[in-house]
Structure formats: structure tokens, C-alpha cells
Design goal:
alpha/beta, 348 residues, four-stranded mixed beta sheet, 15 helices, elongated, three-stranded mixed beta sheet
């Protein structure tokens, strides 16, 4: 009985390994695999070998798992009879009832021990476990080559003859999600928190096209805007007090913005500043910031008003806000430090 238990445990272990590596191969980050293949080292060599032919790799895992399950089922069936139905020992034929019990017990055990648990574990730590078990995987990859090559030859022949498809070829396509996940993992695994600026920019760039204006705009409560009938001296004081390079001009209230005045134009012709108001762009909240950046660049504008669904002012956005989303905070020598409201700075 002891030898039976040992064989059963070994077969479960092998079945767990093969099913786990199969799910790890599917779940592993393709960028991680490609980078590992180009590294120097024994594990990189094994990874390169076992991933060159995906069909052969999958066939090896399936074949190894099948052989393990066959051995498991043979010895488990005998052990169940010995443990639970010893009175049936020696019988050549078993009733359907006892065969059902054998199947139920052995299936439940194998599903938990070699299917559910290992697949969850290998999926959670796909990259690390795929690399760690690359050597034993390569060993079985070579050991079972005669059988897997024959099986692949049969499948390729059937596919090419009846379905007019070519044999499997490895084509690597990386999605933004895979690239982002790989960068997140590398940053998370890095004990040194001083990550290169280039990496941060690259990571931000992956999410850049999915960010909308409402997510980075300056809220209307933090906008400095003045009425069109403001006196010249009062506007001058606001420029001096806030340190802003641009100030919005509205009619009656902030929901009716008619333009903006830049500090250069104001001080060049402050006696008649109303005649040199600059028109401003209006954009919806849902607009993607990459589209907004293209729009402002094309029209040579540095600022835009974000409007809500009712056409009212929801906020303000500048090119600097968009660029900061990509490269991080920009420190300006003219940034004021002690104002109650958030200051909007943009290039003149």
C-alpha cells in the first residue's frame, strides 16, 4: 500500500506541474518572456528553447499531464478498493456502483490537487514560476519530443489538408496592457524607489491616450476670472498678486467666458486691454487629452475652457497640465507658494 501511495503522490505532483506550466505559459507576460530570452544565463537558454515552438510546448504539457493521470487513475482505483471496499478484493468485475465511487473520489482529489490549486498558483505567479521551472520543463520537452513531434505532424497534416491552414508559427504582438503590467511589476519589484524618469514617462505614456479632460482639468472654483468691465488698475493688481501669465475674462459670470488677456499684451497696451482680448478654445469634458494637445498645438493656443454637458464652464486646462500628465510636475520659477487658490500657469 505504501508504494501505491508514493506512486499516486508522484503522479499528482507531475500532473500539477504539467497543468501549472500550461497555464503559466498562457498567462505569462509576453514581454517578460522576450526579454528573458535575450538575457545571458541557463534559464534564458531553456526559456528560449521551450517557447520557440508553442504547439510542441503545449503538446508536451498535455501529454505529460495525460500520462500522469493514467498512472494516477490505475493506482488510485486499486487503493480506493483496498481502503473502502476490502471485501471486493480479488473480484475481476466490479458493479457500476463501486466504479462510480472510484471515479467520484479520484476525480475530486485530482481536481483539487492537480488542477485547481496549481493553476491558480501558476497563474498568480506566472512569470516567476515559468522561469523557475524552465529546466524541468525543457527536460520533458526533450524527453517527449518523439511522441509530440509525431502528434504535431498528424495535427498539422489534418489542418493543412482539410482546413487549409499553415502550421503554428510564433508571432509576438504586445498590447499596451502587457507592456504596462510589465513596467508596473518591474517598478514594484525594484527595492530602490528612485525609478528613472524615462521609465515613469514611458509608463505615463501608455495611459496618456485614455485620459480625458475632466480628469486633469482645474476645477471652476479654482479659476481666476474677472468681469469684462473690470478697471485697468484692478486687473493690474490681480496680475501682480496672483503671478498669473493669463487671466480669463467673462461676461456677467464664469459660464460666459469671452476670452483671456495675457500679461505681455496687458502691459504693452493696458489702457485699452479690452481691444486685445485673445479668443479661447472650448472643449468638452469627455475629450481625450491627446486630442486636446493636438488641437491646442495646431491652433497655437496654450489654454482651453472645459465645458460641461449644459455648456457651462466646468474647468480650465492648459498645455502645461497635459504635459505634466506625461512627465510629472513641472516646477516653474514664477510659481507662487502661498496663495489660497490654485494658480493656473501657462506659457505666454
Amino acid at each position: 500500500m505504501e508504494s501505491q501511495i508514493i506512486i499516486i503522490l508522484i503522479s499528482i505532483l507531475f500532473s500539477s506541474f504539467f497543468s501549472g506550466m500550461e497555464i503559466a505559459y498562457v498567462s505569462t507576460n509576453k514581454i517578460f518572456v522576450e526579454i528573458e530570452k535575450k538575457q545571458k544565463g541557463i534559464n534564458s537558454y531553456f526559456i528560449k528553447k521551450i517557447t520557440n515552438n508553442p504547439s510542441k510546448f503545449i503538446a508536451t504539457m498535455l501529454l505529460g499531464n495525460t500520462l500522469s493521470l493514467v498512472v494516477y487513475s490505475i493506482y488510485t482505483g486499486r487503493l480506493i478498493i483496498e481502503l473502502f471496499f476490502p471485501n471486493l478484493l480479488g473480484l475481476e468485475n466490479l458493479n457500476l456502483e463501486y466504479i462510480f465511487y472510484q471515479t467520484l473520489i479520484s476525480t475530486f482529489l485530482i481536481l483539487i490537487a492537480s488542477e485547481f490549486l496549481p493553476k491558480v498558483l501558476f497563474q498568480m505567479y506566472a512569470n516567476k514560476l515559468f522561469k523557475f521551472f524552465s529546466f524541468p520543463t525543457y527536460f520533458f520537452y526533450i524527453l517527449l519530443t518523439p511522441i509530440t513531434s509525431f502528434l504535431n505532424w498528424i495535427s498539422n497534416s489534418v489542418l493543412s489538408k482539410y482546413f487549409k491552414t499553415k502550421k503554428d508559427e510564433m508571432k509576438m504582438f504586445f498590447s499596451k496592457d502587457e507592456l504596462g503590467d510589465y513596467i508596473d511589476q518591474e517598478i514594484g519589484d525594484n527595492n530602490d524607489h528612485s525609478i528613472d524618469t524615462e521609465i515613469k514617462i514611458f509608463k505615463n505614456a501608455l495611459k496618456f491616450s485614455n485620459v480625458r479632460a475632466r480628469e486633469i482639468m482645474i476645477h471652476r472654483n479654482d479659476i481666476v476670472s474677472v468681469d469684462r468691465y473690470i478697471k485697468t488698475n484692478e486687473l493690474k493688481e490681480i496680475f501682480i498678486k496672483t503671478g498669473l501669465s493669463k487671466i480669463l475674462i467673462h461676461k456677467e459670470n464664469i459660464d460666459n467666458i469671452i476670452g483671456y488677456i495675457s500679461i505681455q499684451r496687458f502691459f504693452s497696451n493696458h489702457k485699452n486691454f479690452k481691444s486685445i482680448l485673445m479668443p479661447i478654445e472650448f472643449v468638452p469634458e469627455s475629450m481625450f487629452i491627446n486630442d486636446l494637445l493636438n488641437l491646442l498645438t495646431k491652433k497655437k493656443k496654450g489654454i482651453a475652457v472645459v465645458v460641461d454637458e449644459y455648456g457651462g464652464c466646468a474647468g480650465l486646462i492648459t498645455i502645461e497640465d497635459i504635459v505634466e500628465e506625461l512627465i510629472g510636475e513641472i516646477e516653474d520659477e514664477h510659481d507662487p507658494q502661498n496663495f489660497d487658490k490654485k494658480i493656473v500657469l501657462s506659457n505666454p
